C-alpha cells in the first residue's frame, strides 16, 4: 500500500505564520506526511541530514511533468503550479538540468559576481542617502526603501529589464509566491506574471543588448535550436524571482536581527564580528526559502525510523528548517548568535540544484548592511520588541516590512 494512503495528516498553514513551529513539530521523524495546497499530500523533510541525502539522491526528481503520477489530479489554478511546474532548470532532471543550468552559470561565478560590487555599492549608497535625508524621527520601511529596490535593480540590470517593466514583474513574482491564494487568484497571478515576462521577451527581441535575456534568446551553439518560449519564460521567472525575492528577505531579516541584538554592532566595530558572520547566521536562522514544493520519488526510499517514501510520492523540502536542526546545532539553534563557530545551513539548497545566485545574494547583503549601518549607525527599530508581519507564504520566509527610524531624535 502506498504511504500516501494514510487517512489523516497535518495541513501546512499556507500563510506561513507558524512555519518554524511547524518545522519543529515535523522534525520528529525523517519525513512526515503533510497536506499542501491543491490539496496535495507530500512528505515534508525538515532534518538537515535528510535534506542533504534526498537532494543528492538520483531517485528524487524535480520534474513533476515527467515523473509525478499525482499531476493528473491537479485542477487548473493549482496554487503551487507556478513553481512546481515551471519549465526551467529549476525543475529539470539529469542531463537536461545540467545543460540548461550551464546557459547562465558563468555569470554567477564568484569572480564575475565580485566584479559587480562597485555598481551594487553605488546603488546601495543612493538608497541609503535617501534614508539619511529624512528628517529626525521619521519612519521608513527598510524592506521597501533599501532591500527591495536594491535587489530588483541588480537582477533587472543583469537581465536587461527596462524600467517600465520592473515594478510589474516584481509585484507579479510576489503574487505568485503567495501560497495563501485560492485557485482563481493563483491562476490570475500566474497569467499576469507570465504576461509581463512575455512583454520582456518581446522587448528584448526588438532591443537586443549585452544582457542575459538577450543571451537566452540566442542558441548556445549554432547547431542547437533556440530555447522554446515556455522554457524562456520559466528561466526568466526562476532567475529574476530567485535573484529578487530571496535576497530581499535575506537583507530585511539581517537588518532585523542586528536591530534586535544591539551588541552585534559593538562586535562589528570591535572587529570580533564581521558582516559575513551576520549574513551566515541570518541564513541559518531565517533562511529566505522554507518549503520548496515539490519533488517526486522515482523509487522506494527507506529513510529509517519506519519511514518509507514510496515510488511516485511527492516530497516537499523545508530548507529554512535545516539551520535550526538541533542535531546540527545543539547550542541554542533558535537564537541569533553571530559569534557561533559553526553556522551550517541549507538556505541556498544542496546538491545539483544548489542556488546559482548564492554568491550574488551574499554580496548584495554585505553591501546593503555595511552601507546602511555605516551611514546610519544610530538606526533604530520604529516599534521595539514588536515582530513585524510575515510574507504570506509557506514558501518564502521573511518580514513583509520592517519599519525603522534612520535618524532617531
TrEMBL record:
Keyword Metal-binding: yes
Record keywords, A-Z: Heme, Iron, Metal-binding, Monooxygenase, Oxidoreductase, Plasmid
This protein's record includes keyword Heme: yes
Top-level taxon of the source organism: Bacteria
Record InterPro entries: Cyt_P450 (IPR001128), Cyt_P450_B (IPR002397), Cyt_P450_CS (IPR017972), Cyt_P450_sf (IPR036396)
Family indicated by similarity: Belongs to the cytochrome P450 family.
Name of the protein described by the UniProt record: Cytochrome P450
Species, as recorded: Streptomyces castrisilvae
